């Protein structure tokens, strides 16, 4: 069954700073930022703001997956681009009980799963692999679809070692699984491969995690973006393979997609010079 840790809702402040440093002055850049937390049944953004330096001309829109995007372009010469997102979000604990599970027969009925076809297909970062397909079949033979979500996440957690720097943002699930190491992005990608191979529609979730379960009000943690999975088993349920828990009041959802490429925090093109990442700084603070 889905493990649930009882708790109360939290109010969280998130500040995310990222950007690029160019090898020489560039004349212009065109960018998209996916940094604004979503409104979901278990979280409510109370205020969001995205700023850039140099200042750009921002346009907000909602992408194909329902994520908020801030698109902006900079037309003055610059050697560095900094993007900062600030948000205050109220979150809720996970439900006290999982949804009534759909049967495997329901998940194999095209009438039920056709709306989620894109969450069943492999992608560049979640490709199929014969061994992982075999693992998925074995897990599915032992679990109903709801329990399969947990079983797949726990298999990843038990099989792979969390090691920052072992992979990069473009590493595929198979590449990370073959080296047996990775970060939350890789854990989520491998979990998606297993769930989709079993016939469970599953999506990548990008967001943030306050890593201290018993954090007092005012507690600040510094980290990076976080990632986990959600699967459709009659309703959407989430599981965090890295933390080994159901997403709850400490998790903030920013975006949904098929894999990391659909929800990368910052992407763009520019004119002139080489580019290096400024890195990422994330501060998550419990306000209440």
Please identify the top-level CATH class of the largest domain: Alpha Beta
Instruction: Profile the largest sheet.
Output: 6 strands, antiparallel
Would you identify the CATH architecture of the largest domain?
Roll
Oligomeric state, counting identical vs distinct chains: single chain
Question: Uncertain segments of ≥5 residues (pLDDT<50)?
Answer: none
- By secondary-structure content and strand pairing, the structural class works out as alpha+beta
Count of DSSP E strands? 16
How many domains comprise the coordinates?
A: 2
Overall pLDDT level = 94
First-to-last CA distance: 30 Å
* Distinct helical segment count: 7
Overview of this structure, please?
The protein has 288 residues and is α+β, with helices and mostly antiparallel strands. The chain folds into 2 domains: 10-92 and 264-286, Immunoglobulin-like (Sandwich), CATH 2.60.40.2250; 104-263, C8orf32 fold (Roll). It is 21% helix and 38% strand. The protein contains 7 helices and 16 strands. It has helices at 104-107, 110-113, 130-142, 145-159, 173-179, 184-197, 260-263; strands spanning 10-26, 28-33, 43-53, 59-62, 68-74, 78-91, 161-162, 181-182, 202-209, 220-223, 226-232, 236-239, 251-257, 266-271, 275-277, 281-286. Strands 1, 3, 6, 10, 15 and 16 form a 6-stranded antiparallel β-sheet that branches. Strands 4-5-2-14 form a 4-stranded antiparallel β-sheet, with no helix packed on it. Strands 12-11-9-13 form a 4-stranded antiparallel β-sheet. Helix 5 (173-179) links the parallel strand 7 and strand 8. Helix 3 packs across helix 6, helix 4 (145-159) crosses helix 6 (184-197) and helix 5 (173-179) packs across helix 6. The longest helix has 15 residues, at 145-159. The radius of gyration is 19 Å and the shape is globular. It starts with 9 loop residues before the first strand and ends with a strand. The mean pLDDT is 94.
């Amino acid at each position: 069954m889905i493990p649930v840790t009882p708790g109360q809702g939290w109010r969280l402040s998130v500040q995310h700073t990222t950007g690029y440093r160019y090898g020489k002055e560039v004349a212009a850049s065109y960018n998209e930022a996916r940094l604004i937390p979503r409104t979901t049944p278990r979280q409510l953004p109370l205020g969001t703001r995205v700023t850039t330096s140099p200042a750009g001309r921002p346009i907000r829109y909602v992408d194909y997956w329902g994520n908020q995007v801030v698109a902006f372009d900079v037309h003055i010469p610059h050697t560095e681009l900094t993007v900062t997102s600030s948000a205050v979000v109220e979150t809720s604990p996970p439900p006290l009980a999982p949804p009534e599970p759909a049967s495997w027969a329901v998940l194999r009925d095209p009438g039920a799963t056709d709306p989620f076809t894109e969450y069943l297909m492999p992608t560049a970062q979640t490709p199929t692999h014969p061994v992982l397909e075999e693992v998925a079949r074995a897990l599915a033979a032992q679990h109903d679809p709801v329990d399969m979500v947990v079983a797949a996440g726990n298999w990843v957690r038990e099989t792979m070692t969390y090691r920052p720097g072992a992979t990069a943002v473009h590493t595929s699930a198979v590449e990370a699984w073959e080296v047996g190491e990775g970060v939350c992005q890789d854990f989520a990608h491998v979990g998606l491969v297993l769930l989709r191979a079993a016939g469970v529609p599953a999506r990548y979730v990008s967001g943030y995690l306050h890593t201290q379960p018993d954090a007092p009000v005012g507690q600040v943690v510094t980290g990076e973006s976080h990632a986990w999975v959600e699967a459709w088993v009659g309703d959407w349920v989430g599981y965090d393979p890295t933390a080994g828990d159901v997403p709850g009041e400490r998790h903030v959802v920013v975006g949904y997609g098929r894999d990391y490429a659909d929800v990368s925090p910052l992407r763009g093109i520019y004119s002139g010079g080489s580019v290096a990442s400024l890195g990422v700084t994330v501060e998550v603070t419990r306000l209440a």
